[in-house]
Every structure is written in C-alpha cells, then in structure tokens.
Amino acid sequence: MAKMVNVGLIQAANVCSGEEDLQVIKDAMLEKHVGLIESAAQKGAQVVCLQELFNGPYYACEQNKKWYGYAESIPDGQTTRLLQSLAKKHSMVIIGPITEVSIPGVYYNTAVVIDADGSYLGKYRKVHIPQMYPGAWEKFYFTPGNLGYPVFKTAYAKVGVVICHDRHYPEPARILGLAGAEIIFTPSGTTSGITEHLWELEMRALAVQNGFFVGAINRVGIEEPWKTGEYYGKSYVSDPLGKIIGQADRGVDEALVVPVDLDRITEVRQIWQLYRDRRAETYGPVVELQPFQEF
To answer: Domain 4-277 carries which CATH code?
Structure first.
C-alpha cells in the first residue's frame, strides 16, 4: 500500500511597506498566513512549509539595526506559539522560518518544526549566510547556524530543512539523505534575474542525487520600500527522479498541496543505487582542500 503524504507549500507577498511599526508588520503577515494555512488544511495538507522569514518582509535588502527587533526567542516567542496552536488545530506538521534571537545580540535565520499535535520538535539554523550582491546583506544580521543538519521525525514523514542559500551547496542535502530524510524543504526568498533559471534546476538535481522528495518555496511580489527585484513564487514539489509533480503559479499568493508517495523513494533508490555505490573514502578532498588548491 502506498504511503501517501500531502505536502503543502505556502508562498505569499508581503503585506506592509516595511516602514510601519515592526509589530504591526508582523501581526499583518501572521494574520495572512493563518488564512493560507487554513486553506492548505482544507485541501488536506499534512506537512506544510512556509517561505523564508515568512512573518515579515525580506529585510536583508538593507542593513538597518531596527530589524534586530524582529527577532524572537524559540520556542516561547509569538510566532512559534501561534504555529503550535495551528498545527494542533489542523493536525498538521508546520515548518516556519523566522528570525531567532538566542542570547542578546546573537541572531539566526531559523526554521522551527512543529509536529501535528502542536509539540515543538526542534529547529534548523541556516548555515550558509550570503553577503553577495545588493539586496542580500544577511551577514549584517545572522550568525551561521551551529546545529548541523537535523532530520525531524514527524507524524507523517522524516523531514529536513535547508534555507535558501543553503540549497546551492550539495553537501547539506546529502547529509540529510544519509540521515534518513524523506522530504527536504528549501524555504527561500529569491528574486528574478540570475537565479530564476536555476530555480527549477537546483532542487530537482538535489532530489535526483539523493533519491528523496523536495519542496521548494519562494516568496512573491516586489517588496517595499526596497524594490530590489520580483519574488516570483513558482514553489514546487519534485519527486526523487527530479520530476515536478506540483507547482504554484508565478507571482501570486498560494497554498499549494501535492500528494506524494513516500514508497517512491525506495523504488527509485533500488534502480539507481546511488547510496550503495558511494565511495566515501575517496571524498576527503571535499573538506580538506581550500578553493583553487591543487589536488
């Protein structure tokens, strides 16, 4: 019998201009996502992932200390508590990426993972922090994650998370696959331009290389006041052979729900045998060599 799980991906445009009181901005985005989570529940979603920094704008478009005030402690902050209540109400696993404060002055780009009974399972802290072009000044805000790449055993599936820039690196996905992840989620905030042609390529490649399902989530809209580019959405689910089996539309709010058959993982791995044929003893240079150092 197929082991079916309904995977939900929620993409949404920012509500406010970014210039209002921080609590006003947060409350508006949380209210919006309550409705979208309700929509996903009505469609039968069992595991739902939200976009990167979902409870506000992608404020790393600027370097401004005021946004430190957006951070919350985990698990006792406003957003985590709300997600716990929604998860319990809908018997739904929820992955919610937010700004975390661990101790005063230390912040992480973090995804909280809530099980279907509302219990807090843990968190993933984004490891690869970009500071690369106008509109991605994350090193001003975030400390690199220090919790590794955990796999969370939820009520419906074993899931892992890599956040946005993490998806450009193959190693985290491989670690999650080796640790038993059946679905990995990549909550993101990605604008059109140099990355859009990669959007339907990279995560599908990770799915193929590791033989699991991938849920890729992207924001939508042009965010005020920065207008650094259009977040185009196009969130999707890839199967273990890299086939897109469900995709949200471009540039619109949407609660996409896609049924996946977890037994497909075994079927694909028995064909390709990529884990059996690994030669881990030959991969030392991956961690030993520095960039451009000769082997």
So the answer is: 3.60.110.10
